């Protein structure tokens, strides 16, 4: 062994060579890695560039936007159409409501007119039916009439004027005999009457054939004032020719008439139901 073998300076070249070789290997590996990384870098970037296709995305978006705009326009048109339809329906409803109100008003007016006409017709019918009542067995002479008149007067506590004679007295007697009978529209006796039926039947007993209805009876004779009445005169309510009720003046400021269903045939003072006028037949 050489005497210089143990000197450290003599061993350093070997250690440096080993380290250099190691360093050269590491450097070579790093360079290789860098080379590999460099080669791999472009290969990974290319797929990203190819995936983004802007023209395709832009075309699809335009189509979507156009479709959305068209749908929005259609919705707007639908809403406008709906608004027009609702406005038309509202107008039609108002017109229908107005027409209905007018129809109701006309119907009510017609109903009132019909009721008035019916009431007038019923009054005329009552007068007519009274005149057509069945003939009653009653005295036709003045003496028997006076006797009946006296009896009736005592029953009703309504004296008959002493001026009632002849046919007038018979008429007065007849109507007074019916006091207390029922009032029935269209009744013709012998126990139920309407106003004109009672008057017609009374005058029929003395051979006078009067019209059936009160309208005609109110013009059947000579018009006389209420201040110049005589027993046997026909009293009427309403206008001459369109009277709705009739009765017979019996003297003493009283009359007999078939008034209504509540009272029947009654004898009352004139002021109980003041007549409009009177006619004289006898």
Provide a brief overview of the structure.
The chain is α+β, with helices and mostly antiparallel strands. The protein has helices at residues 12-51, 54-131, 142-156, 166-177, 195-204, 214-217; strands at 182-183, 192-193, 222-224, 234-237, 245-251, 254-260, 264-269, 277-280.
Describe the protein's topology.
Blueprint: H1 12-51, H2 54-131, H3 142-156, H4 166-177, E1 182-183, E2 192-193, H5 195-204, H6 214-217, E3 222-224, E4 234-237, E5 245-251, E6 254-260, E7 264-269, E8 277-280
Parallel strand pairs: 1-2
Antiparallel strand pairs: 3-8, 4-5, 4-8, 5-6, 6-7
Helix pairs in contact: 2-5, 3-4, 4-5
Q: How would you describe this structure to a colleague?
A:
- The chain is an alpha+beta fold.
- It has a single domain, classed as endopeptidase fold (from Nostoc punctiforme) (Alpha-Beta Complex).
- The protein has six helices and eight strands, in the order H-H-H-H-E-E-H-H-E-E-E-E-E-E.
- It has helices at 12-51, 54-131, 142-156, 166-177, 195-204, 214-217; strands at residues 182-183, 192-193, 222-224, 234-237, 245-251, 254-260, 264-269, 277-280.
- A six-stranded antiparallel sheet has the order 3-8-4-5-6-7.
- A hairpin with a 2-residue loop joins strand 5 (245-251) and strand 6 (254-260).
- Helix 2 (54-131) runs parallel beside helix 5 and helix 3 packs parallel to helix 4 (166-177).
- Mean pLDDT is 75; it is low at 128-162.
- How much β-strand is present in the residues? 5-15%
Note poorly predicted spans.
128-162
- Major beta sheet, specifics? 6 strands, antiparallel
Order of helices and strands: HHHHEEHHEEEEEE
CATH class: Alpha Beta
What is the number of independent domains? 1
Coarse morphology: rod-shaped
Structural class: alpha+beta
What CATH architecture do you see?
A: Alpha-Beta Complex
Total number of helices: 6
Number of strands: 8
Gap between N and C termini: 199 Å
């Amino acid at each position: 062994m050489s005497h210089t073998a143990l000197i450290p300076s003599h061993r350093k070249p070997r250690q440096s060579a080993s380290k250099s070789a190691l360093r050269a290997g590491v450097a070579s590996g790093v360079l290789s890695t860098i080379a590999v990384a460099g080669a791999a870098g472009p290969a990974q970037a290319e797929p990203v560039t190819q995936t983004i296709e802007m023209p395709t995305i832009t075309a699809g978006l335009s189509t979507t936007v156009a479709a959305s705009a068209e749908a929005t326009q259609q919705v707007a048109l639908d809403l406008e159409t709906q608004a027009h339809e609702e406005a038309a329906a509202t107008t039609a409803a108002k017109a229908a409501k107005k027409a209905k109100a007018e129809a109701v008003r006309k119907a009510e007016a017609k109903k009132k007119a019909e009721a008035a006409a019916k009431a007038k017709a019923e009054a005329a019918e009552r007068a007519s039916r009274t005149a057509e009542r069945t003939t009653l067995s009653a005295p036709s002479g003045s003496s028997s009439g006076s006797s009946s008149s006296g009896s009736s007067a005592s029953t009703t506590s309504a004296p008959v004027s002493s001026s009632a004679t002849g046919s007038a007295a018979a008429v007065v007697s007849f109507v007074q005999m019916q006091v207390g009978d029922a009032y029935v529209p269209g009744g013709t006796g012998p126990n139920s009457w309407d106003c004109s039926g009672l008057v017609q039947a009374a005058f029929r007993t003395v051979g006078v054939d009067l019209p059936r209805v009160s309208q005609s009876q109110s013009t059947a004779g000579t018009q006389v004032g209420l201040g110049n009445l005589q027993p046997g005169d026909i009293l009427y309510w309403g206008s001459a020719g369109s009277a709705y009720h009739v009765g017979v003046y019996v003297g003493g400021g009283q009359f007999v008439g078939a008034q209504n269903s509540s009272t029947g045939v009654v004898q009352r003072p004139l002021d109980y139901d003041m007549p409009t006028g009177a006619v004289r037949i006898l």
